[in-house]
Design brief:
117 residues; mainly alpha
Amino acid sequence: MKNRKQLKIDEMKSGKVLLGVLAGAAVGAIAGILFAPDKGSRTRKQIMDKSEDYAEGLKEKFEDMTTNLTKKYSNAMQEVDSLVAKGKNKYNQAMHEVDQLVTNGKNKIMDQKNENV
């Protein structure tokens, strides 16, 4: 199981790659439109339309990434809570065993004292 830090690094890397791909696609599309033989007003409209499309796509990808990160965080926190509960349970069991051993030891000492008297 990856620790939280590694999960965060992995998510940051995938987020950077995604943003890089989207930015590259946007720059390519805009460059293609700018070098196309159209009127200036038409070119500006195409740039605005494409920009809006890419902005919407980027917004959707960001929302998906945020949802994914939220789910992973929630799952990680559930695992931590489970581990803490297991740790507490083990601790309580160990303390119970120690208490039993101490009680048994005291009883044996008392038995030895009673036999010697």
